[in-house]
């Protein structure tokens, strides 16, 4: 057990946010923490970091915390920049100071040992070398180059000062520092925010192979399915542990609820039967002993609690259209988009009832395209034309970032002044603004509440074409599922940008894919797109993750990326298997060539006394040989299948 909370509690005044918390981090587990917005997920992370005292509402310490050793705990929120004038490269390389200091000490010890043997210094060197390897000392330069590139920073970016980067970029820089510091317990709060789909896929591969413990708070269901070994749900202030990924958690929670409900109802029925017997015969002298035995049977029962209903409150409204559009909704022909320079050219046609999901890397033009077709920025060249009777409803994150002291009810009423107060309150009630909530000011609202208010204003217009830019940001999973259900039943047409792959998979009937230098239409949904095009990206990210953590043996490396996945198309799976076999053969050849080159280096006379360099080379050889063994096992299995 690496870290454990027993019967923990966190209160703010009389408000108990967390109560009776039991939480364990076991060795190298990937733990997901899920729950509704405001349930206490981030509070739990802060509690693990030691930012909150373990107190109940009366100020009394409750429960206990135990740890094995002194694990280093890292959290993105800890990462701050002391000097805004240093470069990106200089700031990130600060995390390597312990490794560099250790390397210098090892070199000094080695020189002293070469001069004269010393058992104490040899022991210190051996201990340092083991720690140096554990921290990735032989690969930190490679780690730096790979992660910085994966997060989208160029060589030119690395020379820029921190003050020149946007808020989202600064978050990425802090994230890079956290990953490279490799803490024993890695705490991540919504790590997929600000990341595009390809970087999220890479991060999945990295975390699956991360050789230490990970605790992640996220509303990204596909991410949780692919990363989590264990799920903790926080509901009504308490935690419950479920083995497996997010889908396993959903299935297990439903099964547990149904079983407890069935057992509870059966016990209540038995209690009612016994009480009926007692009531019927309690006044008969000859039945006194019998009635007493029935009462004792009830008294000695282990009472089964009535299961609490899951907190599934979600916004819900009738998403209807005022009038139908023509069959041709939007035609786009060679539309050049960009603010100053042209960043992409777009061509496609959209028919009524289709739901077009827009995907691609950050900075390639997805949101710029939406802003162009709603005339917020001018087009550079080309044309776009809406069809007959098309009425647009547009949502972007700026609408959810409003501020001010206007009340919620007035914000909607000013938009629709002809509606009665009852009608306004009914609309707001459908978006979870009930009772006194409608008198909150805008500044009092959370990010998720502002999104719901913006959608309430938008849906009341009843457009037949919805254009949505990241509509699920700030939403919890229940909110996302509610929006998915509404959009599936919507009679109009939808164009949307999202990085939430689960949302895209459930909503999109076709995709507009932005890539560097091109933009193209994929005529099917995200599941088909990922099966056809996602394998090479997933494999690249997996290879990178394996190499990143090659210095440290990992229990997690035993996982197979496709385990527990249900395949429904044998022909498609055989095709994927053939491509994977070919890729494995390439990887094996590459590794064998690299091994031969490294072995040749070992024989160079100038390295015969350079023990640090020899150890580094030998470690690389062993890593590549282990990779080839794993590749050969997979190659054999797939070849037999084929």
Describe the structure concisely:
This protein has 642 residues and is α/β, with parallel strands linked by helices. Helix content is 46%, strand content 17%.
Binned strand content: 15-25%
Tally of DSSP helical segments:
20
Give the number of DSSP strands: 18
Q: What general outline do the C-alpha atoms trace?
A: globular
Percentage of residues assigned to helices: 40-55%
The strand order across the widest sheet is: 5-6-7-3-8-9
Question: What is the structural class?
Answer: alpha/beta
Task: Report the major sheet.
Answer: 6 strands, mixed
- Alpha-carbon distance between the two ends: 43 Å
Task: Output mean pLDDT.
Answer: 84
Radius of gyration: 30 Å
Q: Which spans of ≥5 residues are poorly predicted at pLDDT below 50?
A: 535-548, 550-567
Could you characterize what this model shows?
This protein is of the alpha/beta class and 642 residues long. 46% of the residues lie in helices and 17% in strands. It is built from 20 helices and 18 strands. The protein has a six-stranded mixed beta sheet, sandwiched between helices. The chain has a six-stranded mixed beta sheet with strand order 14-15-16-12-17-18, sandwiched between helices. Helix 10 packs antiparallel against helix 11 and helix 19 packs antiparallel against helix 20. The longest helix has 36 residues.
